[in-house]
Design brief:
The complex is a heterotrimer of chains A (389), B (97) and C (435).
Chain A (H helix, E strand, L loop, with lengths): L7 H7 L14 H5 L11 H9 L2 H5 L3 H4 L5 H5 L6 H16 L4 H7 L1 H20 L6 H5 L3 H4 L9 H31 L7 H6 L1 H10 L10 H23 L2 H4 L9 H25 L10 H25 L3 H25 L4 H21 L15
Helix pairs in contact in A: 7-8, 8-9, 9-19, 12-19, 12-20, 14-20, 15-17, 17-18, 18-19
Chain B lengths: L7 H11 L5 H21 L6 H8 L3 H13 L3 E7 L2 E6 L5
Antiparallel strand pairs in B: 1-2
Helix pairs in contact in B: 2-4, 3-4
Chain C lengths: L6 E7 L3 H11 L5 E4 L14 E2 L4 E2 H14 L3 E4 L2 E9 L2 E8 L14 H5 L3 E3 L8 E3 L1 E2 L11 E2 L9 H5 L12 E12 L3 E3 L16 E2 L1 H8 L19 E8 L15 H15 L4 E6 L9 H10 L3 E4 L4 E4 L5 E7 L5 E7 L1 E6 L1 E3 L34 E3 L9 H29 L1
The chains are: A mainly alpha (389), B alpha+beta (97), C alpha/beta (435).
């Protein structure tokens, strides 16, 4: 089989933060240094080779970047300082932008200006939503002077309306993310022999467990416990916040200065969100660990907006309890001007899409392995080196 | 040859002072050497043995047994006595076994 | 110890194969040479090697005649156990300050009978055998040492006087102190050789922690007829190894430890050691894990083919990690690139780290020469004058200028001697002209 070398891929990867593939001389140290690699999960070298040769199809159909959690052991010991971990990260960004059919992701990753513009556009759209219509936001407030004396969100952002928009947004983002993930499944299934449906069905558990816990991360050699635990708490935080907003908004959004017990869940979520994202920001500024050394604007936007979401949310809560009506409405607007761009841009087009891609990759790998285990052994494998025991 | 007759006993006293005397470090080193020689000789008195056998019988680590054994072999206290599998056997020199 | 004159034509620093050759080639042209060696014996690394590649000639059989020639040459004065303290340019050449370390043995009186060594009650790890063998606290450096003169290691001495009592020539001298020697030299040749990167420089290989992970020069000693064990055995328990791994580029071509260059000799010595192992132990498997085999010299590629033909396994894989089993076997984690990129952990009895070559000595202000970014002496005109350092009148030879094999080191030594001779000729002519 002939291979057509395409040097443009290496150049392309540099736009996604992967500018070191050219240094790699394919010794394989990275693959063997990684604590997560085994028989058929062999990265990063294989993927770097794809980048060097420009094998787009192979790259698009590869699960390798998703199997890496960037502990940095490979980059620390790479004899060429080719930073394999960073290349895996760039690979993930590249895949996100390739699987996204709208092209928005590609624009955001390749251009900080585009990313800032998109954030600004969505934020302004939210602002417009609060200022332009007469039956919502400041328009609605104008008709209800009493709500300017004392907090009453029913005359600013009625929860039924908000809830309806929540659901619409959720459906749209979910559909976008799922359609992108569908493209991933298609690309991956085109590589290697076909996997029977029964294998997909019997490995569904992997998807659920990894989706909820990302437990595989704990297998990393360096920093795994700290990073995984922090990430896990962060997930519990936004999952509970997601549930409060998407399902239980009726109770969570108290419209006057009253208190409802769902606030306790909100406190937990906010505290964890602020602590973990604040901690991550500090780590990313310190750049001590490999995982924190390479942050581009998309990373900063993600963690920064998460932090600001938590901050504006808790301030909003306090202002409402203190019965500061105008401050409350302003913070409500600000909170959504932060949160909506975060969700709209990061879930289907950005870093947050890993919420689906990572467990999906492990799931597809598990299904493929099951299919392989059913095939007669020794057909594909070369003769292994004898291991004396 | 130089003509000065050295009074080495006096010189040695000064040398010893200058080098910090018989420190604990030196004592420990010599003790280890004695302990290992004694342990090795003790085991080999019963016959030729391999390094793992000496280590097991004496309860001492095999890498240090090997090192001290090789030192004793170099200075003529021990000789090789054939092989047992992947290991050489050693015996006390003089043929006593 | 021969009489030290006030003035020499040439000073050669380092009496390994390159330094000895440079001294012989300079002295052979009628110049008086002072040859200075830091160790108690001359011969450098080469005298401790088992064989040379690709001819498989006995290394010490080539080295020792040179050592003897150096020692007996009427125009060469030998100073062993001596280090350079300072070297600086003067109107007439170089003013050199040397420090002779105390042997605690009077060199001219010692007859090399080793009675002191046999009388001594302490044993000490032997540097010449990389710690695998032992010597007494007072000892003849090794069987091929020149001079055959004892040296006392005060670190382990128990001060019982056994050596002095046993000495038939009354040459043990406890009063010796470091002695400063000042000479003038017309030209200087630096042939300060090599050392290996520290065994523990790559933490993931466990060198220095796992006893069966060893230095390639230690393996040379194990294979040498006068080696510490007399056989190839592994240090943990004396087992005759049945499976030996060579980890190539363990400290060279590795930017992560600051040694980005190729050490040039490792591929060949690994193949050579493998051939020798399989000649003595035909049932022992030898596996060389490499990034690529660099067989660059005359006959080297054929040597590589021969090694493969003799059953040495050459596997393309950079070893990422070594772990120790409870029985002190070692497991190497690699990606088997030629087998479709399979990750495997492969067990071996003994592991040799093909450690990178780094300069054996750094001037640190002691000599007015500049260092290149790789740490070796800077050669300003590499293509035109490869033996000339950055300082006029100072010449360089051997591994001190960069990793190289023995033939290249010898050739370079000849070149340095020739450059030094021409330089001396020019300066003598100038001095004559002034008169």
């Amino acid at each position: 089989m002939s291979v057509r070398v395409d040097p443009s891929v290496q150049a392309e990867l540099t736009h996604y933060g992967g500018d070191t593939a050219v240094k790699c001389f394919n010794c394989g140290n990275c693959t063997a240094a990684c604590a997560l690699t085994d028989q058929d999960a062999v990265f990063p070298r294989r993927y770097i080779r794809y980048i060097q040769l420009g094998l787009r199809e192979k790259m698009l159909g590869s699960l390798d970047p998703w199997l890496c959690y960037y502990c940095g052991d490979c980059s620390d010991t790479c004899p060429r300082e080719a930073q394999p971990g960073k290349l895996m990260m760039a690979g993930r960004r590249w895949l996100i932008s390739m699987y996204d059919w709208t092209g928005i992701s590609r624009l955001m990753y390749r251009s900080p200006r585009w990313e800032a513009s998109f954030i600004a556009i969505v934020a302004l759209a939210v602002l417009a939503l609060f200022t332009l219509p007469s039956d919502f936001g400041y328009g609605l407030l104008a008709a209800h002077p009493e709500a300017r004396e004392s907090v009453n969100l029913a005359y600013f952002a009625p929860k039924d309306v908000v809830h309806r928009w929540d659901n619409v947004l959720g459906l749209v983002l979910g559909a976008l993310l799922l359609s992108n993930a569908g493209r991933m499944v298609y690309r991956v299934s085109r590589q290697g022999p076909p996997v029977p449906l029964s294998c997909y069905l019997s490995e569904l558990g992997v998807m659920i467990v990894q989706g909820l816990t990302q437990i595989r991360w704990r297998g990393c050699a360096t920093g795994a416990r700290k990073h995984w635990l922090r990430h896990f708490f962060l997930v519990t935080s936004y999952v509970s916040m997601f549930a409060l907003v998407m399902i239980f908004l009726h109770w969570f959004q108290v419209e006057d200065t009253g208190f409802h017990w769902t606030a306790y869940i909100g406190y937990y979520a906010t505290a964890v969100l602020l602590v973990t994202t604040g901690w991550i920001i500090i780590d990313r500024l310190r750049k001590r660990e490999q995982i924190h050394k390479e942050s581009d604007l998309t990373d900063w936007a993600f963690v920064g907006l998460l932090f600001l979401t938590g901050l504006s949310g808790i301030l909003l809560h306090i202002a409402r309890l203190l019965d500061m009506p105008m401050t409350t409405y302003a913070l409500y607007t600000a909170h959504l001007m932060i949160d909506v761009p975060l969700l709209v841009l990061q879930v289907p087009f950005g870093k947050w899409s890993h919420i689906l891609y990572r467990p999906l990759a492990l799931y597809l790998l598990a299904a493929r392995r099951r299919a392989e285990s059913r095939r007669p052994a020794g057909v594909i494998e070369g003769s292994p080196l004898p291991v004396r025991s | 040859m130089s003509e000065i007759k050295r009074n080495w006993r006096e010189d040695l006293k000064i040398f010893r002072e200058r080098m910090g005397g018989v420190t604990q470090e030196r004592k420990d080193w010599q003790k280890e050497q004695r302990d290992y020689s004694k342990a090795i000789s003790g085991v080999l008195e019963k016959g030729a043995r391999t390094v793992p056998e000496i280590a097991e019988a004496s309860g001492l680590p095999s890498d240090k047994i090997l090192w001290h054994l090789m030192a004793m072999k170099k200075y003529g206290k021990i000789a090789e006595a054939g092989r047992s599998g992947d290991y050489f056997r050693y015996e006390l020199k003089g043929g006593q076994s | 110890m021969a009489e030290i004159k006030q003035e020499y034509d040439g000073l050669v620093l380092g009496a390994g194969i390159a330094g000895m050759q440079a001294a012989l080639d300079l002295a052979g042209q009628g110049f008086d040479v002072l040859l200075v060696e830091r160790a108690p014996s001359i011969g450098g690394v080469m005298v401790g090697l088992n064989k040379v590649f690709p001819t498989l000639d006995c290394s010490s059989c080539i080295c020792t005649p040179r050592m003897a020639e150096v020692a007996h040459h009427e125009r060469i004065t030998l100073l062993t156990y001596t280090e350079l303290k300072h070297l600086e340019r003067t109107a007439r050449g170089f003013s050199v300050t040397l420090v002779k370390k105390p042997r605690y043995v009077v060199e001219e009186d010692c007859i090399g009978c080793a009675k002191c060594e046999l009388a001594c009650n302490v044993v000490v790890p032997h540097e010449f055998d990389y710690g695998l063998g032992a010597h007494a606290a007072v000892y003849i450096p090794h069987g091929n040492a020149i001079p055959q003169v004892a040296v006392l290691d005060p670190q382990y001495c128990m001060f019982d006087g056994a050596c002095a009592r046993a000495c038939p020539t009354d040459c043990i001298d406890f009063t010796q102190q470091p002695e400063e020697i000042n000479v003038q030299a017309g030209a200087v040749i630096l042939a300060t050789g090599l050392k290996l990167v520290p065994l523990d420089v790559k933490k993931e290989y466990g060198g220095g922690k796992y006893v069966n992970v060893m230095n390639p020069l230690a393996m040379e000693r194990l294979q040498s007829p006068n080696g510490p064990y007399g056989h190839v055995m592994r240090p943990s328990d004396g087992k005759i190894p049945r499976s030996i791994a060579y980890v190539q580029c363990a400290g060279s071509r590795d930017k992560s430890i600051g040694v980005p260059y190729c050490s040039r000799i490792c591929c060949m010595y690994a193949l050579k050691q493998g051939i020798m192992i399989r000649q003595h132990l035909p049932e022992t498997e030898v596996t060389i894990y490499h990034m690529d085999i660099r067989a660059f010299g005359k006959g080297y590629e054929q040597f590589y083919r021969r090694a493969v033909g003799e059953g040495i396994r050459v596997v393309k894989a950079k070893v990422a990690r070594i772990t120790e089993e409870p029985n002190k076997d070692l497991k190497l984690r690699v990606e088997l690139i030629d087998e479709g990129g399979r990750v495997a952990e492969i067990r071996h009895d003994l592991v040799v780290l093909s450690q990178g070559v780094i300069p054996g000595w750094k001037p640190d202000g002691a000599a007015p020469v500049r260092i290149d970014e790789d740490g070796f002496f800077l050669i300003p005109e590499m293509a035109a004058r490869p033996a000339n350092s950055s300082h006029e009148g100072v010449f360089v030879a051997g591994v001190a200028t960069g990793p190289k094999d023995i033939p290249d080191a010898i050739v370079e030594a000849g070149a340095a001697a020739m450059e030094a001779a021409m330089y001396l000729g020019r300066s003598q002519a100038r001095a004559g002209g002034v008169q």
